[in-house]
Amino acid sequence: MAAWRGLSYLWHRWWRGPENFLLVNGPLQKQYNFPQNKQLMWFQFSGAHTDIQQPKENSLVSVSDEPDTLYKKLAVLVKGHDRAVLDSYEYFIVLAAKELGISVEKVEEPPKKIERFTLLKSVHIYKKHRVQYEMRTHYRCVELKHLTGSTASVYLEYIQRNLPEGVAMEVKKTRLEELPEHIKMPVWDTLPQVEETASQP
């Protein structure tokens, strides 16, 4: 019974707070400061070790009062030598845009570019014996419309991190901007009035 009372006493002390919990009833032992990560708190204990997670604010999210950039159109052009890889990556780009709620305006396949090289088959003689090599570059173009700057940056970072080997990407952005103040008002409204003098015959 006494053991049960002692255990319940220790449990209640621990339940009230770890800082009130002492392992020994004698003189105070050396106090330890436990340095922890930014996610953890600082505690002073006498011989007890514990890690208590504290909810932390996400420092990656930034809040600003300035308006976000608006893009009318975002054209993503990818090119590579393997057609099957480009088809797979085009499917991935369109699927990622739909998952983020971005409207896809059009997906097109520009004409491929073929470069041919003619080389002599023999080193010194047999001039007419030649070999031709060709390099084909395939293209895919995906146009997205009506994006904000934050959505565009997240989307582009996501598809660039998953860019396959041997594939290059080119991005063209069309940004919407507010009309400048000096163009909003017609110029002739700001000109001073000129008095017309009647010419006498």
Strand composition percent: 25-35%
Series of H and E elements: HEEEHEEEHEHH
Name the helicity range. Answer: 25-40%
Radius of gyration: 36 Å
- Which structural class fits the helix and strand makeup? alpha+beta
Sequence stretches where pLDDT stays below 50 over 5 or more residues: 24-50
**Principal-axes shape call:** flat
Query: Could you tell me the number of beta strands?
Result: 7
- Span between termini: 131 Å
How many helix segments?
5
Largest sheet: 5 strands, antiparallel
Mean pLDDT: 77
How would you describe what is shown here?
The protein is of the alpha+beta class and about 200 residues long. Helix content is about 25%, strand content about 30%. It has five helices and seven strands; from the N terminus they run αβββαβββαβαα. Strands 3, 4, 5, 6 and 7 form a five-stranded antiparallel beta sheet that branches. It is flat, with a radius of gyration of 36 Å. Mean pLDDT is about 75; it is low at about 25-50.
Considering the chains and any ligands shown, give keywords for the structure.
201 residues, alpha+beta, two-stranded antiparallel ribbon, 5 helices
